[in-house]
Structure formats: C-alpha cells, structure tokens
Automatic annotation (TrEMBL):
Residues 1-58 form the HTH lysR-type domain. Belongs to the LysR transcriptional regulatory family. It comes from the Bacteria. This is LysR family transcriptional regulator. It holds the Pfam family HTH_1. Keywords: Activator, DNA-binding, Transcription, Transcription regulation. GO terms for molecular function: DNA binding; DNA-binding transcription factor activity. InterPro entries: LysR_HTH_N, LysR_subst-bd, WH-like_DNA-bd_sf, WH_DNA-bd_sf. One of its GO terms (biological process) is regulation of DNA-templated transcription initiation. Coiled coil: none annotated.
Length: 313
C-alpha cells in the first residue's frame, strides 16, 4: 500500500467521480482506476461502488476513508515538524470544538490565531463531543476542546475553565425564575430542552440529577444548538446549560440565565491532544494561544460563568 493510493482514494470519495478526481490529481483516469483496483485487491474489500450520484464509498470504504485521512494528516504533520521554524511556526493545525463551547471560544480563537500566526493554516471544526473524541484519537485533529467526564485518560489534557451551568429561559417566559435563583428540583419540574446524549454536557447533568435522587421527567432532546435556541425562544421550555452557547441571546435581553442555588452543576473544559502523536511546532503555538486566550476571556468577564483553572494561568 502506497501513500499515493490513499490520496487517490480520498480524492475519489471527496469528488464523487473518477473523472473529476483524475483531473484534480493530474493523472489519466485509467491509471487512477488501476491504482484503486490494486488497493481493493490488497485490502480484500470493495471500497467504492457506482450509483446515480456517482462514486460512493461502501461501508468498508467509509471506514478506510477515515483511516486514510488520519494517515495523510499525520504524514503532512511530520513533514511540517521537520521543516518549520520555532520562531515562525507554519503548517496546518486542526482544532475541534463542541457546539456548546464555540460561542465563547470559536471566533476569539480564530481571530487570535490569524493575528499571531499568519503562516498557520488554522482549521476550526465544530462537532458533537463524541465525534471530536474519535477524530482526536485517530489523528485527524491536532487538538480538541473537550469536557472532562472522567473518560479523557487516553489524552494529554490541560484544564482551561470550570463553567457553571444555569437555568435559562426566554426573558419573558412562563417558566422563568420568580426569584434570583432556583433549586434543581424546581428546575426539573419545567419541560427541559437539552442537548442529546452525544453532547458532553448532557451526561454531566444527568449524573448530578441522579446523585440528588431526582429525575428528569419532561425533556426535549435536540442535537443542534441552533434549534435548541429556537425552541427556547418559542417558549417550549427551559434549558440547563453553561451561558456560553447562549451568550448573544442573553446579552441582547432575549434570554435570562438564573443560577441553580442548591447544588454545584458545572463542567470542566479542557484542551486535549493525543498522547501518541507528537504536536508540531504550529500545534504547540496554537495550544499556548488557547491557554492565554482562556485566561484573557475569563479575566475580562467575556467568558461569563467561567472560573479559570490553575493549569491555564
């Protein structure tokens, strides 16, 4: 198996056509077909099949595609690590961030990397926590922002902040707090709109509820943060979340955040990297920038409900 065969296979999947992939790769289509056949023979599996939509990956092809992307990225990172300067880091850095943390970090981080390291090609990916964990483990991501649920032992982690979770409603909601704070039991009496179980925040909420001997009786599961916002603004219920994903709506006065007064409900936000795949100079530069930016955002009050943890100071 050769690296060029991996590149060829990825190009075919990405472009959905042998002819388009051949043009992009600057090779003739028969040669591309031959390389694909050799790859399938070596693997003993059919990787692609023709359909009305073009060339599509089989189930085996989808699995191999993920591995091929990871391998090609690690080869690219290895080349960058050898050639790049520590004074002027360059190359590609892929960082993943969960939907429920992007409101606080995504745009400030994108702006900071572009300003500090113009030579770095910065790829910022917003995904479900479960997807980020898989991509970081496989090497498709250099870094990821993850929530410490006790399952991060396979990664090198640097805690950033502890985020308080609050009871959040539409500002004039029928479910809004009558006082300045609310008990967890009373919050659970309201129809709750919560991220689905794939989000790192949901298992944490459910664990605290169980520890208090309580149950979530009425819940609307929504995977998309955008749809969750719309449901809250339609007054279908309330949510229990950190402030960061709903910060814009709270600052505009469209939503109201109310502290939970009888139990500590929070999540630890950590910056994670693989223990097995070394970081390039560019990735280490971005890692340092994330730590500095977290400190600045908390210190300036722009990351509401967040408390800085020692290792990021």
């Amino acid at each position: 198996m050769e690296l060029r065969q991996l590149r060829y296979f990825v190009a075919i999947v990405d472009h959905g056509s042998l002819s388009r992939a051949a043009r992009v790769l600057h090779i003739v289509q028969p040669a591309l077909t031959q390389q694909l056949q050799q790859l399938e023979e070596e693997l003993g599996a059919t990787l692609l099949h023709r359909s009305a939509q073009g060339m599509q990956a089989t189930d085996a092809g989808k699995i191999f595609y993920e591995h091929a992307l990871a391998i090609l990225k690690q080869v690219s990172d290895a080349k960058s690590a050898v050639s790049q300067s520590t004074d002027k880091p360059s190359g590609t850095v892929a960082l993943g961030i969960p939907q429920s943390a992007s409101g606080a970090l995504a745009f400030p981080l994108l702006t900071a990397v572009r300003a500090a390291y113009p030579e770095i090609v910065f790829q910022l990916t917003e995904e479900l926590t479960g997807n980020l964990t898989e991509q970081l483990a496989s090497g498709r991501l250099n870094l990821a922002i993850l929530f410490d649920d006790g399952q991060l032992g396979k990664f090198a982690t640097k805690p950033l902040v502890e985020e308080e979770m609050m009871f959040i409603t539409r500002a004039d909601s029928q479910f809004a707090c009558k006082k300045k704070s609310i008990s967890l039991a009373k919050a659970l009496q309201v129809p709750l709109i919560l991220p689905s179980i794939q989000h790192g925040v949901r298992p944490r909420i459910e664990q605290v509820v169980r520890d208090q001997g309580l149950k979530i009786e009425h819940v609307i599961d929504i995977t998309s943060i955008a749809i969750l916002k719309s449901a809250i603004l339609a007054d279908m219920g309330a949510t229990i979340l950190p402030v960061s994903p709903l910060l814009a709506e709270i600052e505009r006065g469209e939503m109201r955040a109310c502290p939970i007064n009888d139990v500590k409900l929070s999540r630890t936000v950590s910056l994670c990297a693989s223990k097995n795949i070394p970081l390039t100079n560019a990735a280490m530069a971005v890692e340092k920038l994330v730590l500095e930016l977290s400190r600045d955002l908390v210190g300036s009050g722009k990351w509401l409900g967040a408390e800085l943890l020692n290792s990021s100071s």
